[in-house]
Design goal:
alpha+beta; 3 helices; 5-stranded antiparallel β-sheet; 9 strands
Length: about 190
């Protein structure tokens, strides 16, 4: 969990990403966590900002340039399985996009010199009917947010993803590891 506050009375939870199966949380310095600027490589294999963009691309594109730098895990496989299942719809065409969100990410130094990054992504699924008379039908939870169950022009689902990455220090292994992630439906629309 990442907390942000201006003073103790203003605490607020920014992001929470549970550890993925088989992942371990890197140690943090006993003296406290040193924050790292998102655009600063700071002795790391890659800057936090680039790693966040990389995981967004990795989740959006099966043939991402980041595929060799962010290895498969349970969340990545689940995400591509979900996208593949939706894309099988006979009467609609779907697009999938994972996008970094604003300046809500945070990065801090791990005990081994690497870094831990926690960041939000918006995962957008857009569906358009293939032919006149075709419809995109939403499940009940999404329909409640959208104010309707069927779309004749376009249906959009937006999920907020919280991801936690481990970035190795420069000179070590160059793979970025997605160690935590979660996804929650945050918006839907039909037209």
């Amino acid at each position: 969990n990442t907390m942000s506050y201006k003073n103790p009375a203003m605490d607020k939870l920014i992001e929470a990403a549970p550890l993925l199966p088989g992942a371990t949380f890197p140690g943090t310095p006993k003296s406290g966590a040193e924050q790292i600027a998102l655009d600063d490589k700071a002795g790391l294999a890659v800057s936090p900002k680039d790693a966040i963009a990389g995981v967004a691309d990795r989740l959006s594109n099966a043939n991402s340039a980041w595929k060799g730098r962010i290895p498969d895990n349970a969340y990545i496989k689940d995400t591509f399985g979900y996208q593949s299942d939706i894309a099988k719809a006979a009467d609609a065409t779907f697009t999938f996009k994972h996008t970094p969100v604003g300046n809500e990410a945070t990065a801090f130094r791990a005990a081994d010199g690497g870094a831990i990054v926690i960041a939000p992504l918006d995962f957008t699924v857009e569906g358009t009917p293939k032919a006149s008379g075709d419809k995109v039908t939403l499940q009940d939870d999404a329909a409640a947010l959208a104010g309707g169950k069927e779309a004749t022009k376009k249906a959009t689902l937006t999920f907020r993803e919280s991801v936690m990455l481990y970035l190795p220090k420069d000179g070590g292994p160059q793979q970025v590891t997605l160690i935590g992630a979660t996804r929650n439906l945050s918006g839907a629309s039909v037209s």
